[in-house]
Amino acid sequence: MTEDSGVAAWAALLRTHAAVVRALERELEQTQNMPLAWYDVLLELNSAPDRRLRMAELGERAVLSRSRVSRIVDELARAGLAAREPDPNDRRGSWAVITEAGRARLRAAAPGYLDGIARHFADHLTAQERAAITTGLTRVLDAAAGSDAAARR
What we know:
Strand order of the largest sheet: 1-3-2
Number of helices: 6
Order of helices and strands: HHEHHEEHH
Helix content: over 70%
Structural class: mainly alpha
């Protein structure tokens, strides 16, 4: 691969991500009165063991900055969709926990979210293209995780 094709792939990824995220944000707001960031955090919490994550771990998993994750969890808590619980083993740490109301809200929003992913992204690709994107991006993520782990040592 030439340097130019690598830059072109990167630029296409960024532009596609921005366009699809804008469309999903707009649709979730209009149909569910829910910011996409709320959906992202609720989805991560719902799929976690015991439906809870330490705030630091949520910051690593969610597609948001750590400070933004903290603010989103506070907003979700005010709306009754999540809660913060102190970590009894670490006084500096806390857990984010999805509530039953949060799970219900996530379930209600999921069909529209999944439909939006199909309409704005997946339906424009063949099965082979989707598989190639998944394989390639997973390899990049694995390499980044390895670099992060090496940097922490």
